[in-house]
Amino acid sequence: MAKKQFKAESKRLLDLMINSIYTNKEIYLRELVSNASDALDKRHYLSLTDDTKRVDDADLHILLSVNKQARTFTIEDTGIGMTKEELEKNLGTIAKSGSLEFKKENEDARDIIGQFGVGFYSAFMIARRIEVLTKSVKDDSSHIWTSEGADGYTVEEAAKEDYGTRITLYLRENENEENYDEYLETYKIKQLITRYSDYVRYPIQMDVEVSKPMETEENEEPKYETVIETQTLNTMVPLWKRNKKDIQQDEYDTFYMNKFMDWQKPHRVIHYTTEGMVNYNALLFIPSKTPYDFYSKDYQSGLQLYSKSVFIMDNAKDLIPDYFRFVKGLVDSDDVSLNISREILQQDRQVKAIAKNVEKKIKGALVDMLVKEREEYETFFDNFGLQLKYGIYEDYGIHKEQLQDLILFKSTKEDKYVTLKEYVERMKEGQTDIYFASGESIEQIKKLPQLERVMEKEYEVLYFTDNVDEFMVRVMNTYMEKGFKSINQGDLNIDTEEEKKEKEDLKSENKSLLESLQNALSEKVAEVVLSSRLTSYPVCLSAKDGVSFEMEKVFSQMPEAKGQDIKAQRVLEINPNHDIFKTLQSVFEKDADKLPMIADLLYNQALLIEGFPVEDPVAYSNAICQLLVDANK
What we know:
about 625 residues, alpha+beta, 8-stranded mixed beta sheet, 5-stranded mixed beta sheet, 22 strands
């Protein structure tokens, strides 16, 4: 029979199908199974609407088989089949979708998957030749369509006993490091069905060789025989489309651990269905532990996307905000727009609507946990609280309102977690700021000299132990109209009017001493002042407004900040009520030449307390030794 040409710019378009539109060769099986499922849907629909075309639902299935010797892979369905005209129209015209036309003609047939009419041609990525043998329910005719690619196709009459379509792929030979043999392996076929088509509503079956024990005498060695067994490869009914009331927790746990390769049960399950402008099912999980690679570039965030229960893509980042990237799960929607290969999610209002609702559901679940199960929420926060903090900091704080009430800090009040709202609600009368102290650990912060006076005034102080904490509150700026104040930066404004006047008088009386100390440390500190922060400690360092000490430490660890020398403006604070101040006054009066050495010692002492290295350890050690020698004279 004469070969016919495709009704399109054949070679160019088919080359595009094979080489450009699809990026993943294994997609071919998803597309062929989806087409087979559509054919079964059409026959099922016809059976409901035409009494003469009745079919038992039990007879609707998809059968896969391989022949390694012939290098063929076959997929056969018991669906509606195609007439000669339909073969010409649907397979002879690239990008002509019979499924799309069927949906337009039959509005009730919502579950039909196909829409572009190009999925079938993805099989040419692995096949050098394709045969489509089909028998139509409509007119009992049987035909075979054959093509080796862009050079055209033939359609001939053929014999087929049962209704439906059998597609045979003659696989390409391994070439150019491409391995096509794997598509003849049973394990690979099972793997692809599980990944892409596990929830197709019809049984996907395959004849598989299995080894079974034979009957033997009592003392005889066990013997086995190889038999062919028809196995169903797909589960058909997705968990997320079942009624929540009918699902046990262990079913959710098992699904999560198998699907997302976690050895621990999820901390929380969020399962819901939305109908309206966009229809979709969502099944989301909050893990019990932080994944080992969560904060590395290797971690893949995003939700799995299904369309009509057919797997479309992993890690759809557009469906979930980055600050909730720890959430695993999936969305199954009939309404999302996909690109022609169904490999890429299009940006449209349906996607945005789903993402907004997913975000709302996750936040609602977290708020509910925080309010009703505080211990459970604190466990969650230990795992993923850092990500929520980054969520506030990133994008210049535009997500502040979404996340700020989910943040927890431990504080000087019983070392327990507190929310910002709880902190503000129990602030002292007249307190205008939320006080915090930064350090590598709570234990280190508790030893800070600056904490002593604030605690004496009975102000609660939040412990900031994560690098992002100070950056986060900088972008937040305020919470419930309260500012954030570091205990070792700027003016704490906790002195009474009487204390302020007393300090001003003392400052005036010791103006020359303070200026001498300032001159001695002019290259190291911006100021030397009498402290309002210290009670029993002799000295401390504080920072002027702007870059804090903790921010300086963070910047110093960032490769992109190397060489920029981003530093806080240091202020050396001296406790006027400590004996060290009397010593300084005495030295200034009797032996002013020693003042620079003592000033340097105090500065280095303050550096060590603050967690900074001494700038010149040798000079520091020599100065201490000299001081000890002088004391013995």
